[in-house]
Amino acid sequence: MSQRPEQEKELAILKSAVENTNEGFVTIDADHRVLFFNKAAERIFGYRREEVIGRDLDRIMAPSCSRNHRLAVRRYVETRIPSRIGHDTEITATRKNGEPFPANISFSVSEVKGKLYFTGIIKDLTETRSLEAQVSRAERLAALGQLVSEITHEIKNPLMVIGGFAEQLIRRASDEEIREKLLIISKEVGRLEQLLKELREFYTPGRPAKESVDLADLAREVTLLLGDACTRQGVQVTVSADEPLRVRGDRHKLKQVLLNVIKNAIEAMPEGGALAVYGLRSGDRVRVSVADTGTGIAPEDLSRVFFPFFTTKREGTGLGLTISKGIVEDHEGGSLELRPREGGGTVCEIELAADPLSLETPKSEQESKQQGARDGAC
Ligand code: ADP
Ligand code: MG
Predict the structure, then answer these.
(1) Beta partners for 336?
(2) pLDDT tens digits for range 19-73
(3) Which CATH number fits domain 22-124: 3.40.50.720, 3.30.450.20, 3.40.140.20, 3.40.50.300?
């Protein structure tokens, strides 16, 4: 008699343990009807227990799974020979909203007062699988990065020699046809060198440094660098920015981003146009926009421009935007987006968290430091 409260206590402990574990517990009877459906099962499958208890297990199973399961239960009831019981099985289960997910199920059977009850213990493997995929992707990328780095290293030196000799010969060549061919060699070598640089950057990105960088300064520096290209193409450039536009980041890499997007803008205006680079600080964020009046991006290409190797240019590598987006996103609060410009052309918007130290300077002091909008044309 004194065992009864003890047993009740044990039962309560067991029930609460099963109720609160991370694994889904689903118990059915020999007629395939659900008797028990714990909290984790509700979370994993997306059904509330009132929706399934007393119903056929079919309700939460895909029809093909359900048929096999029903057969296995019937076979066990008739033969008592376990086929799946005691084993772990990996399956693709389905949530209430129709989403399939990888799961591990182990089955157990209990006989109570001559009746059979089957319990499936379900582990949702979605997160495990996604972590595994991330690790294997990181490993693949590291291996690929190593390979790319070795190959680009091997190609770089002979390419430099070819380019160097071509330059020397161009200076000496008196025959116009030979000179033209040498110029082509030199240009193609330059293009290959750029591709190698971008491939290295894409596959072996490295951590960004954390220094205080003024994006307004950087934008002016880059537009000056591209001045000749602008003049040749009849592109009018204006740079206007509140100063300072300080962020914490990698000066070299951020300069590369501005170079890439400003070059894209110039390349989109082969017949000339206007390039406006404007920066502003809003609260604790800094935004630099690069707007051009160029060809614009076809709507069907807008989602593809960030894919590696996507290019619409005969001599493009299709890596500039992928690398740039990666660099910006590696920075605190960084985002890089492209959108159509009203009136034609494209706007590239780069947003980053402002350097917290620069935010400590009182606004009035910053304003007195501002020299207004600065325009520069090249
Ligand atoms: P690439 O410049 O080598 O083609 P990117 O990754 O820099 O590679 O750009 C990918 C593609 O995105 C370009 O080929 C072009 O089609 C499109 N694109 C990027 N920026 C612009 C822009 N400012 N105007 C029009 N198209 C653009
Ligand atoms: Mg580009």
Answers:
(1) 350
(2) 999 999 999 998 989 999 999 999 999 999 999 999 998 888 877 777 778 888 8
(3) 3.30.450.20
Residues above pLDDT 90, as percent of the chain = 60
Pick the CATH number of 129-203 from 1.10.3470, 1.10.287, 2.70.98, 1.20.1260: 1.10.287
Q: How far is CA 373 from the centre of its chain?
A: 35
Structure tokens at 148: 């790319």
Residue 367: pLDDT over 50 = no
Q: Is the CB of 117 under 6 A from ligand 1?
A: no
297 lines ligand 1 (CB under 6 A): yes
Mutation pick for ligand 1 pocket among 321, 347, 348 (CB with most ligand atoms within 8 Å): 321
| Beta bridge partner(s), residue 89 | 105
Q: What is the pLDDT of residues 313-326, one digit of tens each?
A: 988 989 999 999 99
* Interval between CA 330 and ligand 2 midpoint (Å): 19
User: Can you give the pLDDT at residue 375?
Assistant: 38
Q: What confidence score (pLDDT) does residue 259 get?
A: 94
Task: Say if residue 239's pLDDT is above 70.
Answer: yes
Instruction: Give span(s): CATH 3.30.565.10, the chain.
Output: 211-369
**Taking residues 323-347, what's their average pLDDT?**
94
